[in-house]
Design goal:
The chain contains 7 helices and 9 strands. The chain starts with 11 loop residues before the first helix and ends with a strand. With 210 residues, the protein is an alpha/beta fold. The relative contact order is 0.15. Helix 1 crosses helix 5.
Length: 210
């Protein structure tokens, strides 16, 4: 998996060549669900778990004047992004974890128009099913608090698993938990609505605030 990618031996040029590659999965949704997303130039974005900037690059191309803030747990991946965005003053990146409640708490309520989480949520888990669900609920609650307009969670079919939830061990320190994440939005139904959107290789769960 990309989480095991070793960036340490790469030159700056090799890292720069990796910035934004492969193209961010958000691009399909921008091109095919623009009226659903309603992203606009000048609006702000938070990319939670940005990797090496695949979606940052797409968003900055489509919305060049929009402030973008992004974080990831991988310093190596962030080194790639730093090289790619050094001429883009509207983009800020930092080390941070979506599973760290104290880190997320630093973001102000309604601090960003749009929050994006791409192909991260499936790998969020804790010790056992109950603690995993509690952690996921806390994260979604925080993301909804931070967003003033939308929260978009992109992932594989594992985030809309309609059968019995399943843990799958993928690698020694990597596994994923398949379940529908729709119920985590239930307690927020009075302030917004949930929509499922689809691409050829991903699906999205979009929460739009009223």
């Amino acid at each position: 998996g990309r989480g095991y990618f070793n960036y340490e031996r790469l030159s700056d040029q090799e890292k720069l060549d990796l910035y934004g590659e492969p193209r961010g999965r958000i691009e399909y949704f921008l091109n095919n669900y623009s009226q659903t997303l309603k992203y606009e130039e000048g609006q702000s974005f938070l990319d939670a778990g940005c990797g090496r900037g695949q979606n940052i690059k797409v968003l900055s191309e489509y919305f060049p004047n929009s402030p973008i803030r992004a974080f990831d747990i991988s310093e190596g991946a962030l080194d790639v992004v730093r090289l790619g965005v050094e001429d883009h003053k509207q983009i800020q990146i930092e080390i941070g974890s979506i599973t760290d409640a104290n880190y997320l708490d630093q973001y102000p309520s309604n601090g960003f128009d749009h929050v994006l989480v791409s192909h991260v949520f499936t790998f969020i888990m804790h010790e056992g099913e109950a603690k995993t669900r509690k952690l996921r609920q806390s994260i979604i609650d925080n993301l909804i608090r931070v967003a003033s307009k939308t929260v978009l969670i992109l992932g594989s079919k594992d985030i809309l698993q309609l059968e019995v939830p399943v843990f799958r061990i993928e690698q020694l320190h990597r596994a994923h938990y398949s379940e529908s994440i729709i119920p985590y939005f239930k307690e927020h139904h009075e302030c917004g609505e949930v929509t499922a959107i689809f691409s050829t290789d991903s699906l999205g769960v979009l929460f739009k605030k009223n």
